[in-house]
Design a protein that fits this description.
Radius of gyration: 21 Å
Oligomer: single chain
Strand order of the largest sheet: 1-2
Distance between the termini: 51 Å
Largest sheet: 2 strands, antiparallel
Structural class: mainly alpha
Number of helices: 16
Order of helices and strands: HHEEHHHHHHHHHHHHHH
Shape: globular
Number of strands: 2
Strand content: under 5%
Length: about 425
């Protein structure tokens, strides 16, 4: 098996394991009673455990970012990816071992939160090391083919794994543990933890070119200075993703719970629905470049994001599950097809040596909302339900569209 095929095998196993393990995590938290269980957080008071479990990984990922960056630089991409697999696996085992709220103590609640939060640093390691390893594994034809194959494989495996997650939960419930509402999710998480732990094995046989020696101190200082200049120029690309993340973080982590609580959707139906969302998003991503060619890159971004706002409002008042499912698919396709266009525009405006900095800034801004958003959403859900949350998210999306329109469309027309 070629080295690039080994990498793709790792990506396939990892995506399959993570999707199956985490799809029903929020539902499992609710079934365990974490929506009403509260723990004391210094400076913030008592907060619901279900919100903290969704916010914790993102916060841990942000804190660990500089250490992960150093790990990739010092150890190399392959060891960092292996460590990421093992941390992801440990987080899934923590999910599988999570007790009912009636049996949990503050100490075990914090241990559970720390265990689940390991998925944050694991994701950061993959985000930093994955592109670096793909560049090393690319042949004479360049990296485009491997990058495209990796992205396509992730979408395809994600869709299949969503179907598999729903089917497995149904099988566990009927065949093995029909009377236990939590056991199917435990078994999904346990199986996924094993798959993710094994996902790194194809990387063990890779023979890579030795990394270059560390740069002299003067070169490092110059690189830091260039980094700050790149960040100063790229900061205009951060407000839009930041505002979108503030809205998305309120409902995306709880979308499966929304379908379960409002429409009593079964595990199999939720798995099918998320598979369809993944499929429509993938197809929409392929349409994005054609739209950009017709109306302009940033005009296409603003247009698709604006069209997604009515979908989000309609989702808040959807009367039936089929209607809500259709709206969710259209909304997901419209919002996510704009992401590659936005990133392509950002990279087109910056020198190649600053591309990692710009992409890192955009993706960091797109994750900021997830630090506190899920916790805030959990508090709002217990007080007012899902409808106001979706409307607040629509407001955040509206602000993001207005900001992107002013910065990239209106200002561009004035300066052209």
């Amino acid at each position: 098996m070629r080295h690039d095929q080994r990498y793709l095998l790792t990506i396939g196993l990892l995506n399959a394991g993570l999707t199956v393990g985490w799809l029903f995590a929020t539902i499992a938290y609710a079934e365990r009673g974490y929506g009403s269980y509260r723990i004391g957080v210094p400076l913030f008071g008592d907060l619901t455990l279900i919100g903290l479990l969704n916010s914790g990984p993102v916060l841990a990922g942000g804190i660990s970012g500089p250490f992960a960056w150093q790990a990739v630089r010092r150890w190399g991409a392959r060891p960092a990816l292996l460590l990421g697999c093992w941390l992801h696996s440990a987080a899934l085992f923590a999910l599988a071992l999570a007790p009912l709220s009636s049996a949990i103590t503050p100490a075990t609640a914090w241990m559970l939160l720390l265990g689940v939060s390991l998925s944050g640093p694991a994701s950061v390691l993959f985000n930093l090391a994955g592109p670096s390893l793909m560049m090393q594994l690319s042949g004479a034809d360049g990296p485009d083919r491997l990058f495209a194959r990796s992205a396509a494989l992730s979408l395809i495996i994600g869709g299949i794994a969503n179907l598999l997650a729903g089917s497995l939960a149904t099988v566990w419930r009927v065949v093995l543990v029909e009377s236990d509402a939590i056991a199917p999710y435990r078994l999904n998480a346990t199986l996924s933890a094993v798959v993710v732990a094994l996902a790194g094995l194809p990387l063990l046989g890779l023979r890579l070119a030795s990394s270059r020696s560390p740069a002299p101190a003067t070169m490092i200082r110059r690189e830091i200075s260039d980094l700050w200049r790149a960040l100063a120029k790229a900061i205009i690309f951060a407000p839009g993703p930041l505002l979108i993340s503030l809205g998305a973080a309120l409902f995306i982590p709880y979308l499966s719970l929304f379908f379960r609580q409002r429409f009593t959707a079964t595990d199999a139906v939720i798995g099918l629905l998320f598979a369809l969302i993944s499929l429509t998003t993938g197809l929409a991503t392929l349409i994005g470049p054609h739209l950009a060619a017709r109306v302009g890159r940033m005009q296409g971004v603003v247009l698709t994001q604006a069209l997604a706002i009515p979908c989000l409002i309609a989702l808040a008042f959807a009367p039936t599950l089929p209607v809500a499912a259709l709206i969710a698919m259209v909304r997901g396709a419209l919002m996510n097809m704009a992401t590659p266009l936005f990133e392509a525009h950002a990279l087109a405006q910056t020198p190649p040596e600053h591309h990692p900095t710009v992409i890192g800034l955009i993706r960091a801004a797109a994750s900021v909302g997830y630090i506190a958003g899920p916790t805030i959403s959990a508090e709002l859900q217990s007080a007012v339900g899902f409808t106001p949350i979706l409307l607040i998210a629509a407001l955040c999306y509206t602000l993001a569209v207005m900001v992107n329109a002013v910065i990239f469309v209106w200002r561009g027309q004035r300066t052209s």
